[in-house]
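Figure 2 data, in text form.
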Amino acid sequence: MTQTLLSLQVGKAQTIALESGDWRSAIHKKPVQTRLFLDVEGLTGDQQANRKFHGGPDKAVCCFCEEHYAGLREFVGAGDEFSFGAFGENFTVTGMTEENVFLGDIYRVGSAVVQVSQPRQPCINLVRKWGHADIITHMTTQNTTGFYFRVLQTGEVEAGIPLELQERPLPDLSIVTLNDAKYRKVGGIEMARRLSTTPELSEEWTQNFRKRKGVLD
């Protein structure tokens, strides 16, 4: 299956007035047609409003699969505004669903080299953007979360280029498997213990599994 970077998005943090108060976010990403430099913190020109929960080396690039767009457009009832970047992703990809992307996968994209570090964890920003209270639950239960890359080698990327798999060290730990372990506790305490010491997994998710009752007993 061809794996391609269909669209490249960046966005600036902005403040949006809601009935509940001001909301500051950089989730409103816009496609970029030019080549961009990708460093260990992300794409040139991209921002995150809340660095406690977004961005950083383990979450340098947020990826989302184009194959999920039709179903989610219907779920939220969106129209023409539902274009690439709708989920705040930097890379809109094709051929890379949560079933066939694995923790630790290393890809060459343009002159950069990236590695899968964790699933994307849908958050309140998606609820606020689309006005749908159930979108987080829907995405986690349907395994349409997306995932993150860390950057192993900086370089330039652009829309329309392939992602070339270089290495797959953990072929039994798909993004689906990680989502199941986190949200549904599939695999029980043994899976949680394994993920609490897996170096390819982001520090945030590693700590999450370490805090689970019984993991460090």
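Caption note: The chain is about 20% helix and 30% strand.
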